[in-house]
Amino acid sequence: MRKEKVISNYSGWSDYALSTLAGRILKAMQETTAQANFPQPNPAITVLEPLVNDYITKHEIASRRGSALEISQKNESRDALLNALRSLAHYVNEVANGQLSLLLSTGMVLASQPSSTQAPTMVEKVQLRDGRLSGQLRLDFKPVKAAWEYEVEIGTMASTGEIVWNKVVLTTSSRGNVLSEMEPGVRYCVRIRTRNGKGTGDWCEPVSLIAR
Questions:
Q1: Distances, alpha carbon 54 to alpha carbons 103, 123, 180, in Å
Q2: DSSP readout, 22-82?
Q3: Taking CA 167 as the corner, what is the angle to CA 166 and CA 173, rounded to the nearest 5 degrees?
Q4: Residue 90: enclosing H or E segment and its boundaries?
Q5: φ, ψ for residue 87 (rounded to 5)?
Q6: CA-to-CA distance for 200 and 100, rounded, in angstroms?
Q7: First CA to last CA distance, the chain
Q8: CA quadruple 63, 67, 73, 79: dihedral sign
Q9: pTM attached to this predicted model
Q10: pLDDT tens digits, residue range 16-63?
Q11: In this protein, which residues make up the domain named Fibronectin type-III (predicted)?
């Protein structure tokens, strides 16, 4: 029987997918259960946490502006994180010794886990409604099974009728997303696309609502 283990090499993953995964792994390893199962992780959580946070921050900066310096800094941070995840995976596989419940508690990806063969499909049934407070909008949509995260782009309508997209929000939930700091009386447009390890889906058709 094949022994279960987690993947140690995430170098082929996109920046968006790696950013989401790294955050998930860090959160899982900080849980009481994982700390009990893996008391001496390599690297230590105190070492892993700043590496994850540094990469996520630099990835967000590089993805929005993308100067040569910012991309270079992001890539250096990515390499450091990949090395740390490789070491952590080796430690986890050694301690877990094939025990599935232990492996799953780390948030890492099983080597035997089937992967999506293509980028996720388009989001459907998008609803934009008033939030509980003035200046808030609530966003709900039908979840996409193969998606790891959703990129929500927010914009306003120019005098020419063209939508000016000026803000991006990332979420892993399809329900109860609250978009805040909206100016009352302004019509806001929202569109969504999906992401997973294989790529990015198409944008959905924009929906709009006037903030109250």
A1: 25, 30, 26
A2: HHHHHHHHTSHHHHHH-SS-SS-HHHHHHHHHHHHHHHHHHHHT--HHHHHHHHHHHHHHH
A3: 150
A4: helix 68-96
A5: -65, -40
A6: 30
A7: 60
A8: positive
A9: 0.57
A10: 778 888 999 999 999 998 899 999 999 999 999 999 999 999 988 887
A11: 119-212
pLDDT digits (tens, 9 = 90+) for 87-133: 999 999 999 999 999 998 999 988 865 554 466 788 888 999 998 89
Please name the fold of domain 124-210: Immunoglobulin-like (2.60.40)
Q: How many residues does the chain have?
A: 212
Instruction: Specify the 3-state DSSP secondary structure of 86.
Output: helix
Q: Structural domain boundaries of the chain? A: 15-104, 124-210
Tokens of 30: 């900080």
Single-letter residue type at 98? G
Region for 159 from its dihedrals, namely left if φ exceeds 0, alpha if ψ lies in -120 to 50, beta otherwise: alpha
